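Researcher: We're reviewing a set of sequences before deciding which ones to prioritize for further study. For each one, I'd like a predicted 3D structure that I can look through quickly. This is Putative glutamyl-tRNA amidotransferase subunit A. If possible, include the structure in token form so it fits the rest of the review sheet.
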Amino acid sequence: MTIRKPQYEDLLAADQALGLGISKADIQAFTELLEEVSHDYAIVDALTPELPEVRYPRTPGHYPAPAENPYNAWYVKSEVKGRPGGQLEGLNLALKDNVMLAGVPMMAGASSLRGYTPDVDATLVTRLLDQGATILGKAQCEYFCVSGSSHTSAQGPVKNPWDEARSAGGSSSGCSALVSAGLVDAAIGTDQGGSVRIPAAYAGFVGMKPTHGVVPYTGVMPVEMTLDHAGVMSGDVRTNARVLEAIVGDDGLDPRQRRLPDSFDYLSQLEAGATGLRIAIIAEGFGWENSEEEVDAAVRAGAERLRSLGATVDQVSLPLHRKGHAIWTPIAIEGTANQLEGFNYGSNWKGLYVTSLMRAQQDWRANASDFPADVTSVLLAAHYFRGHYHGQYYAKAQNLVRRLKAAYEAVLADYDLLLMPTVPLKAPRLPDPGCGAREWVGRALEMNTNTAPFNATGLPAISVPCGMAQGLPVGMMLIGRDYTEATLYRAAAAYEAAFDWKTL
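Model: Here's the predicted structure for Putative glutamyl-tRNA amidotransferase subunit A, in token form for your review sheet.
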């Protein structure tokens, strides 16, 4: 990129835009002064960028035809084989299409990113391949990862293998269908308001959102840095734990990672059983306005089954949980818009900047008329509330997160795990493409009242299928203290070993 020095006319326009009231004589002086600044920019431009090494060969792949893409779940298929002999050898994985795989197209569900090809591998991709996994390609995701349903991608809706007229959940929608249908052993999703766990509940598999920062987000397209989590989606608990263990830990490139444990062992407790676990059913996680009675009943029955396996199970009231989604909302709305308008990274951050993505996104406004109604609603809300209150409610919500997390931790001081429905409803029908904005947005954002608070607080949470309701899966969510993923896996594995959820 050649640095263009600012001209007199550029600074005249800047003065008018900023309202600085600079005299014409001083504008000429500033023009000359900024020539020196331009010289420093030119030096930076000429230096070689610092990017992580891409270690494993791959091809750009191909866009699968409908015959090899039955649920519209794949975006690009490109097989990348990892190191022979690694701990994940033999496992086939999909990546959500906001996870960067160098040399393979990525669009994050958005028409504005069509044609973008990353030049780096996400840290977690390198770690998967170092451990011998095979990556089969990129799975569809929702437009800029905003929707919790599976109808908003520019590539069309992703279908639920249990009922193709229903949502597979989002925004990790393609991963959901591929894991649910058994087309991959596991997938890497991302979760800002429930986007790993909502699909797990809708489509019947295990979805783990680990502690915030435990998996480096380097090389993953951000949505809101304080809410961003990468997680694992799989058909069984052991596979989930194996994959997570391979990708956790500090990479030196993601400042979200701080005070991490020295080591991670998610497998040794898998057969420890539920005896001795203390579980708190959170009363406020049930009975939402859109809760379905059969979903609440199935989750309560799941809690009783854990009791039958030797766990202590009590019901506890945690009133602030009912306000957790509200606390998350300003962070999600304003943070998402800030990332988009700041070309995905903004400033005041020490992490790896993927400048190729910033270039690809810089003209997003030219495609704004193509945005689906859920993305449009976020941008409108952010513009209004930031314009009137200048970020104060984003800031207040972030401050309130500490109170919210303390409320959960107060219960977790006496219990190992919290328990509630992952989502209040079964997988709903996909909306008609021609439906109005109200239905489109409602379907996209109706389900995350229980999941979103744990993005804001960063506490680890896992969705486990606990039974069926009217022929569709029901997800039970377990939540633990920071870095207690092993305990979550222990409880989930005990349930999985004792009960065939598909018959319950």
